Amino acid sequence: MGLETVGPADWSELSIARPPARPEPVTRATAASPLTPHQTTPTQPAPVQAVAAPAIAPSPPASEPFLSPILSIEDRRLRLFAMDDGEVRGCTKCGLCHSRTHTVFGEGAVDARLMFIGEGPGHTEDQTGRPFVGPAGMLLDRMIGAMGLRREQAYIANVVKCRAHLPGPPAKDRAPAPEEVAACSPYLERQVEIIRPEVIVTLGVPASQFVLSTRLSMSRLRGNWHTWHGVAVMPTWHPSYLLRCEKEGNLEPKRQAWSDLQKVMAHLGLIPPKKSA
Ligand code: URA
Predict the structure, then answer these.
(1) Which residues have C-beta atoms less than 6 Å from ligand 1?
(2) What is the pTM of this model?
(3) Is residue 168 very low, low, confident or very high in pLDDT (cuts 50, 70, 90)?
(4) CA 21, CA 136: separation in Å to the nearest integer?
């Protein structure tokens, strides 16, 4: 079966059971990725795209590559754990702290070559303290699986660590406000600096616009390589958007997302899994 057909079909058919409870902190519990991190990559991304509009949150317009040394796996674990346990869990830097159940720091391999960045926790994530564990997370798991990886081989985080929602009932998720992004995003930048992935996939508008310091639309951003702090960035559609489009019978965004992920696979030299008969 060809590459073109493997992704979208898999994503809509599989479902993955997930434990409901908050696990041990990622820094202690996560096994190192069997992929060798920071290898030389087989293809080079295109140069950074010029951005036309101002950022939605304060962030340098042209992000400089990180200059700090690459850390050992143990140091990455310690630093991520210290940030999660010592800073993020008790964070009161914005108003989202008043309505949260749990902060959602992020999880995955501390030496991941591939990092996914979403916008912020939804209801299920707020309840469990884990990123992407609701319906969008199940689709994200299938997208990662179609790339030939397991979820725990990647690192998954969000721009903001607490759920943003409108007053209910029912309390509906909303995009984080610029001041919430400004308050929280330094944690994300430090996560990226510690993990130093080779590729970041930004999922949807808030993550892509924050990381790329732009107001350009997803249609303009997705499918093209960018860089952030020296890391290659591929923006693609958010899994929640893919689910909404699929419900309406529109499979084109899913096809586009799969094409974006195939570029990431080529960049990382990943081989898609063989389809079972
Ligand atoms: N959507 C996101 O952007 N992040 C999550 O963690 C869950 C849903």
Answers:
(1) 118-122, 125, 131-132, 134, 136-137, 158
(2) 0.82
(3) confident
(4) 18
